[in-house]
Recover the amino acids of this structure.
């Protein structure tokens, strides 16, 4: 049995839905957070100075802290979450849009059937989006930790998780 | 048996059903007649638990819930199929969700009406959509098949075919409640007529009783409704100012 036969409103195209979530994820999660990279490069360059044409670390220079570099870089997650919510609402609406197939759904033995079909994919997409966000956060943290000169790292490399999202 | 007791339903301040009492026995074919807004659709939707109501509706003595609602099927002019699915995909869906789904009847009716099995319902004509709507209701395997203006948009030959097929395929235990304005057309098909007006049942008779009295169904409906036959000529006289006798 196909995924769409069980976890999507009947007649909704699974490939189209997945492509839509991929596009939402690309824009709201990946592209949005990528703005961390130029900010990081700028902060990294600020650690250096040029002496006789050579790039050298400034004495006592400390890298901008990770928290401020990450700030709002993942706020796009909320846009993505909103898209997931909108998709779920669209699924519910699909039962009354062209026809009243809601009448069939209300005659099924299981009241859960309709909710599973409306919520399963958006919920899975939301979880996948959260996992991707966490992975990107980890990747940026590792980049910060290992690409920043050891001597310039601030006392703590941790960052404010909610600050990155809100 | 479906038993309806003191059924009341309002939409805001507007009363749609007022103290409806009725019973539908197994094996009956019942016509539900009434003017637009009389409460026919609301009555059917109450039976199917699609709208909230006060009063009592039971199916063989039990309230209608998810546990037994599969014994009711519904065909409506609003259509209740999934427009993005093909008939074949509907067959799969119904087979999975309605344990008494009647495959043989589904295939037979699909063949009889020559409907394409692999085309999405969205692309069907209105007539074909109506046919499919009724086919699904008849194939669900329900004991009670409720139909609300199912043939709106079908041509007369097509409707004629449907009545004949229905009479031929219905099992003795299957009950049909058919709401329609096509009174004369279904008079040879229904065994009982229920008349509803302004949310109340104003007439309920067996066709055999009408036959015994030598009365036609349309005559019975007009009489019960107090239809004034000279209404039109009076109105025309008022409008045109010309006397019919002149």
């Amino acid at each position: 049995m196909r995924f769409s036969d069980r976890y999507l409103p009947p007649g909704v195209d699974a490939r189209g839905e997945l492509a839509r979530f991929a596009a939402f994820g690309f824009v709201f999660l990946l592209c949005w957070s990528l703005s961390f990279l130029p900010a990081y490069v700028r902060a990294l360059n600020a650690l250096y100075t040029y002496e006789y044409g050579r790039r050298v670390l400034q004495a006592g220079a400390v890298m901008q802290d990770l928290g401020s570099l990450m700030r709002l870089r993942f706020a796009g997650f909320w846009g993505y979450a909103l898209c997931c919510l909108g998709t779920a609402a669209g699924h519910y609406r699909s039962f009354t849009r062209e026809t009243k197939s809601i009448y069939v759904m209300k005659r099924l033995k299981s009241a859960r059937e309709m909710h599973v079909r409306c919520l399963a994919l958006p919920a899975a997409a939301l979880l996948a989006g959260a996992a991707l966000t966490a992975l990107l956060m980890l990747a940026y943290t590792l980049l910060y930790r290992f690409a920043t000169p050891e001597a310039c790292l601030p006392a703590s490399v941790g960052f404010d998780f909610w600050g990155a999202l809100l | 048996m479906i038993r309806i007791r003191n059924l009341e339903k309002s939409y805001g301040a507007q009363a749609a059903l007022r103290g409806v009492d009725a019973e539908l026995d197994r094996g009956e074919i019942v016509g539900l007649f009434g003017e637009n807004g009389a409460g026919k659709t609301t009555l059917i939707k109450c039976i199917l638990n699609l709208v909230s109501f006060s009063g009592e509706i039971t199916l063989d003595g039990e309230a209608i819930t998810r546990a037994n609602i599969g014994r009711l099927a519904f065909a409506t002019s609003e259509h209740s199929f999934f427009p993005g699915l093909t008939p074949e995909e509907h067959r799969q869906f119904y087979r999975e969700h309605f344990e008494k789904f009647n495959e043989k009847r589904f295939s037979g009716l699909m063949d009889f009406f020559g409907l394409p099995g692999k085309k999405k319902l969205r692309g069907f004509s209105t007539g074909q959509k109506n046919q499919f709507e009724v086919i699904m209701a008849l194939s669900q395997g329900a004991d009670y098949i409720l139909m609300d203006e199912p043939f709106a948009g079908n041509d007369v030959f097509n409707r004629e075919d449907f009545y004949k097929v229905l009479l031929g395929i219905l099992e003795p235990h299957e009950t049909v409640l058919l709401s329609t304005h096509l009174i004369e057309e279904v008079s040879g098909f229904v065994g009982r007529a229920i008349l509803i007006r302004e949310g109340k049942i104003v007439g309920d008779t067996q066709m055999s009783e009408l036959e015994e009295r030598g009365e036609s169904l349309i005559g019975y409906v007009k009489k019960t409704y107090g239809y004034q036959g000279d209404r039109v000529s009076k109105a025309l006289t008022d409008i045109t100012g010309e006397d019919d006798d002149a």
Remarks:
- Chain A touches chain B at residues 5, 9-13, 98-104, 106-111, 113 (CB under 8 Å).
- The mean pLDDT of chain A is 92.
- Helices of chain A lie at 3-7, 14-33, 36-45, 66-70, 76-93, 102-105, 112-147, 161-165.
- The first helix of chain A runs from residue 3 to 7.
